[in-house]
Write a structure and sequence with these properties.
With 117 residues, this protein is mainly α. The chain has helices spanning 2-45, 49-62, 67-79, 83-116. It has one domain: Tetratricopeptide repeat domain (Serine Threonine Protein Phosphatase 5, Tetratricopeptide repeat), CATH 1.25.40.10. Helix 1 (2-45) runs antiparallel to helix 2.
């Protein structure tokens, strides 16, 4: 009986630590994205698009479905004449937007169905 209580306590402690680490990781991830986004916007305001490109690439690495970052990256790369790099970014941005819109439409249809039932 005592071993079971110790095991349960130990398991609860492990879960508490894991949950804490996970929430810190999510927070850290979001902070990284926000920091790269802030820097990219700052570089664009300062008319330094060459410095904004690595920031948008970092955002895309952290969030591959970030349509804004991919779209901005694609546009900047095309301005630099790097069309082979720009086109896939622009396609992925368009696809991410399409996915968001279709998901939103599905959610609206589901909500309407729920309202009628």
């Amino acid at each position: 009986m005592r071993i079971t209580a110790i095991s349960v306590s130990l398991l609860a402690l492990v879960l508490l630590v894991a949950t804490s680490c996970y929430s810190q990781s999510v927070s850290s991830h979001q902070q990284q994205v926000e920091e790269h986004s802030r820097k990219a916007q700052e570089y664009l305001r300062e008319n330094k698009p060459d410095l904004a490109v690595p920031e948008f690439k970092a955002i895309v690495a952290l969030e591959p479905n970030n349509a804004d970052a991919r779209g901005n990256l694609g546009v900047l790369l095309s301005f630099q004449g790097a069309y082979a790099e720009a086109i896939p970014q622009l396609r992925e941005a368009r696809l991410a937007i399409w996915k968001m819109r279709s998901q939103s439409s599905r959610n609206k249809r589901f909500a309407l169905r729920q309202a009628w039932n």
